[in-house]
Amino acid sequence: MIKRWLTGFGITAYLGTLLFGIVSHAANFQDGSHPSMYFIVWDMFCGWSAYETRTHIVGQGVSGKYYELSPGPWGDYQPYSNISRHHYDSFNLNPQTIAVNCLKHTAHEPMTRLYVVEEAWAKKYNLPESLWKHRYSEPKEPYSYFHVRTVMTPEGQVTGNAVSWLSYQTNFTISDNPRLQRESQKSAPMFMVRPMSETSSPSAN
Amino acid sequence: MTTTSHYLDNETPSGLRARIGKFFFAEESPFGLALVRMVICIACLLVTVPRWIHSRELFSTDGAPTPLALNYGYADLLPVPSGGIAVALMTILTFCCVTACLGWCTRASLAISAVLYTYLNLLDSISTMTKYSVITSHVLFLLAFSHCGAVWSIDAWLRRRRLGLPQLHSLADHPKFAAWPRRLIQILIGVVYFGASVTKMHTPAYFSGDQLWHWMITNVNNANPVGEWMTLYPASLVAFAYLCVIWEILFLFVSWRGWGRVCMLAMGIGFHVMTTLTLGLYLFPITCIATYFAFVNSEDVVTAAARWRRWTRRHGETWLPRLAAVTRLPRAISGWATTSLRLTPAASLGVFSLLLTVVAVGAVEVEYRLDIYGERSPEGPLALKEIDPNVVKQMFAGSVRLREYDKLLAFDVGSSMFGGMITGVRDTFYHGDPVIAQCTLSPPHEDMWVECNLHDSNNILIDRVGQIVVRSQLRGNFLYRACEALDPGTYFLVLRTGTQELTRRKIEILANDAARCRINAN
Asked: CATH 2.60.40.1930 residue ranges in chain B?
């Protein structure tokens, strides 16, 4: 009987957890609060972009030459398709780990700076030539945009971070408004701090 | 007989509590779970075997692990193992997947697999941890609590040998257990689909077909030529989008029995096959379809077995002897084992542990000798690859604004629409036909002035029509009518933004005796 009760409790707890995941996801309530939420929130294919992006992690040596830090010279790891692993770091959270690991296991001249450069192109250029001809009357001439996302020291300390290329381009679409520009310039962000005070910013931004 | 024995299939319990009790605790032979066990373990092996050689790089402090916890702001939630330990853990995981698939020390294998698979995946968020990994973790976890190793397994065979039980002559002779692990796997996959439908409802671009369109023209998952071809028919994506959401919502409620179960599972298999063809997904479909075996109950297996026996009686004369030749070796091993092996559960676990240790230690040694970073070669560590200076120049040229042409995704001309998309794409129109031109823009774009102008064969502007496409819109539609004011002949529809021509389409207008139109409308 105890076994039956324990089983019943386990079933209820499991179903309750699944239900919490659904409610949390539907109501956007605590759905990103803890890594464990990843196991009960089913948000497959929640995002999309009209642009394909790739990440280049490069190092600049003291000689001025630039070196590829991912994939490492020992070989490429492509988890899916023919695309290297570091390209799947869509939030740009791990380039320093990847870059430092590459430097740790290779012979190289001293580095001055490490960079993360985003490359982006319109996804329509991914279409094969035969389908392109069906869709477009112009010849296919792919064009890539490059955008320096992160600058790091050779030890992987981040010294500069920019918004992603897509956010950078999105900002243009909004800031092209003279009235908006004028009004935003009148209200530069500031936060008055009293010396020795540990009070944090009252705004959540 | 256990405490659940009073829930027999032929009983009809009244009351909600009794029905729930029957739903979870009715006894059955775990054939469905055994099938889930085998297929999910094969799906696991498809992940672990190719990644084994990269274990040091992906999961250890001697590589570049990318813990999932970092995405949530938890820097050191889980310990990261050293290189050798990571290789050993990956080897143990792979070994346990194999043994769980075969059903040897099944519960221990599944428990170890569930823990290690989840742990290692959590250490590599960018290339290993995805939703198929999560579903697999759930299923392995549930199977570890089940009796899925009681049938069609080495454990079951050893048990019969040990107890001196006779050969099973009927499927009904297999042991029976409560159904709840199977029920939880069924509910899990239903909840996954329901959650996926919620995600789609949160994504307006899903229903307009734009999201699918763009996923179909990327190889981020894998190559998907069918998906690329389907982008020629964007209206079909809208229809499929709605169909998919309806199926995902219904699955949890309809897939339990009768035709509802058949239809939902058939649609599910169709859906997942299509995700392979159109989106390049492989592991996700295999994982989901593995869970479908949880919908197989004892009656299904009995029915299938009876059909198989009938079929082999009718058609087996020619190929059964050949099959016997193929299975000679396994039968010889089985015969030897039958006369030699009489392992107790403790002895079986001992052999399992010994073999696991030997394999793990051997794998660590092999990986060390392989020297994946190439550091111990006579030439020393490998040199970095220099980047072509011309490429560097491009990379650091500075960010530029989007070209106008890149903002244009498509310019279609046709005569009818479905789901907000042009359907009858064509370039020949008769007097009286509507001519619908649709420009589709890629986000992000600013508020744009877009013109769709009609030019004659000499490129002389005949009609200028423009509209503002605000930044939240992705489409601008222009309606012309091929009226008699336009002489039969060749024309061009020219798409322009405020600053430049983007593209043009050539159309032919032909005379029609039954012309109805008198005005050039927009």
From this structure: 404-510
Distance from CA of B229 to the nearest CA of A (A): 7
User: pLDDT class for A13, splitting at 50, 70, 90?
Assistant: very high
Burial B225-238 (b: 16+ CB within 10 A, else e): eebbbbbeebbbbb
Which residues from chain A sit within 8 angstroms of residue B372, using beta carbons? 74-75
Q: How far is the C-alpha of B56 from the C-alpha of B49, rounded, in Å?
A: 14
B281 → chain A, closest CA residue: A80
Q: What is the pLDDT of residues A172-203, one digit of tens each?
A: 888 878 888 888 888 776 777 666 555 555 45
> DSSP letter string over A175-205?
HT-HHHHHHHHHS-------TT--PPPSS--
The residue type at B483:
C
Q: Do B409 and A124 touch (CB under 8 A)?
A: yes
Q: Specify whether the CB–CB gap between B134 and A38 falls below 8 A.
A: yes
A 25-64 → B contacts, CB under 8 A: 25-26, 32-35, 37-39, 41-46, 48-52, 56, 58-59
pLDDT in tens, B209-255: 999 999 999 999 999 999 999 999 999 999 999 999 999 999 999 99
Let me know: does B105 contact B155? Beta carbons within 8 Å.
Answer: yes
* pTM assigned to the model: 0.90
pLDDT per position as a tens digit, B382-409? 999 999 999 999 999 988 999 999 999 9
Give the CA-trace dihedral at A127, A129, A131, A132, to 10 degrees.
Answer: 80
Type of residue numbered B65: P
Rounded Cα–Cα distance for residues A67 and B392 (Å): 9
How far apart, in whole angstroms, are the C-alpha atoms of residue A74 and residue B138? 35
Neighbours of A204 (CB within 10 A): 4
Rounded to 5°, angle at Cα B374 from B368 and B380: 120
- Give which of B213, B476, B65, B456 is closest to A98, Cα–Cα: B65
- Beta pairing, strands B428-430 & B501-510: parallel
Contact B231 A48 (CB under 8 A): no
Residues of A in contact with B26 (CB under 8 A): none
Give the count of Cβ contacts less than 8 A between chain A and B: 259
Model confidence pLDDT, tens digit, residues B422-431: 988 899 999 9
* Residues A18, B192: Cα–Cα separation, whole Å: 9
Mapping DSSP to helix (H, G, I), strand (E, B) and coil, where does residue A161 land?
strand
Structural contact between residues B435 and B507, judged by C-beta atoms closer than 8 angstroms: yes
Q: Which positions in chain A touch B127 (Cβ < 8 Å)?
A: 77, 79-80, 85, 88
Residue A155, SS3 per DSSP: coil
CB-CB neighbors (< 8 A) of A41 in chain B = 195
Are A93 and B145 a contacting pair at CB < 8 A?
Answer: no
Tell me: pLDDT of A154 over 80.
yes
Cβ distance A42 to B129 less than 8 Å, yes or no, reads no
CATH class of B404-510: mainly beta
* Domain regions of chain A by residue span: 2-39, 51-177
